[in-house]
Amino acid sequence: MKNLIKMVKETDKLGYKLSAICGVNWLIRQAFKWQYLFFVMVAYAVLIKIISARLEISPNYLGFLMVIFILAVPFSKLRFGVERFIFSFLESVVLGLIFSIAVDFPFQENESLFWLLATIFSIGIYYFMKWFQAKLFQRYLFKNVLNKDYLGIRKLKDKLPPKINLFTDADEGDANQRMITINQRAVKKDYQDIVELSFLNREKRTGISYYRKAWNGSEAPLEREFVDIEELYHPVFSVFPFGKKHDFCFEMIQFDVSKKSAFSVKAEFVFTNK
User: Are residues 24 and 125 in the same domain?
Assistant: First the structure.
């Protein structure tokens, strides 16, 4: 207990602040996700009731098949690991309960349209907030925690990344030195002890390019060759609330960075009358 109190006292308060921001961000995301799933389950129940009434059968038959389907979905995620399967299965159990209660609930005939419209509205809110919240969270991180310019995250009109950037450092042959260097430059100074680039995956896309060689007198024949079209990086940053000395962390953010987009510029044409 004394060691825990000592660890808490010695920890940088920025770790608690960043952890709290990440926690609130996660809770808000989950709240909008579950309100969306709740309305979707209710809408499914309403549709089951409508279909059952048309077929003149009990809604419990189709409802039972739907519950079996909901509980079977997590088994498709077994290949991603047991932990993810358990989480997905518990989520499916909750969804199955919501659906079962909705099927047994005595909806009035004139309420069906309301629930269907409410579901459509809920889906719209969920996807808008998912986009808006992600943008807001990223804006905070790139302003306060991560070095946006070094990572090559920019708009077409922004200045190009500096000469020392993620893409040049990623070519370092030694994996340990590569990650140490990138961490020193990608994470801002105040957060060096609590934020870490834990994983960096690189994806190279190769495709076919068509071209013509210069040929005097007539048009050259069309030729083709394989070239590297795009290079994508997938960094994953983690937060260590009690500092990197303690082996406790959680994922802060992961995103994709395109080398092509990082060095693309928007052409500007100036027309002059001569």
Answer: yes
In-domain check, residue 60: yes
The pair of structure tokens assigned to 213 is 């060689």
Can you list the positions of beta strands (E) in the chain? 195-212, 222-239, 250-254, 257-258
In this structure, the answer to whether residues 106 and 155 fall within a common structural domain is no
Distance (Å, whole) CA 214 – CA 74: 58
* 136 and 181 belong to one structural domain: no
Q: What percent of the chain has pLDDT over 70?
A: 89
Residue 1: pLDDT over 60? no
| CA 70 from centre of chain | 24
Asked if the structure places residue 274 within a domain, the reply is: no
Of residues 260 and 191, more confidence is placed in 191
Mark whether 58 and 160 lie in a shared domain: no
Cβ count near 197 (within 10 Å): 20
In a domain, 100, yes or no: yes
Total domains present in the chain: 2
Claim to verify: residue 7 and residue 117 sit in the same structural domain: yes
What's the mean pLDDT in 213-238? 77
Q: How far is CA 24 from CA 135, 139, 140, 238, 255, in A?
A: 15, 15, 13, 16, 19
pLDDT tens digits along 194-207: 999 999 988 888 88
Q: Which pLDDT value is given to residue 2?
A: 55
**111 SS3 class:** helix
- Same domain? For 90 and 49 the reply is yes
For the segment 97-126, the average pLDDT, to the nearest whole number, is: 85
DSSP for 177-244, written as a single string: HHHHHHHHHHB-GGGTTTEEEEEEEEEEEEEEEEEE---SSSPPPEEEEEEEEEEEEEEEEEE-TT-T
Domain of residue 155, residue span: 148-262
- The three-class DSSP label of residue 253 is strand
- Round to the nearest angstrom and report the end-to-end CA distance of the chain: 82
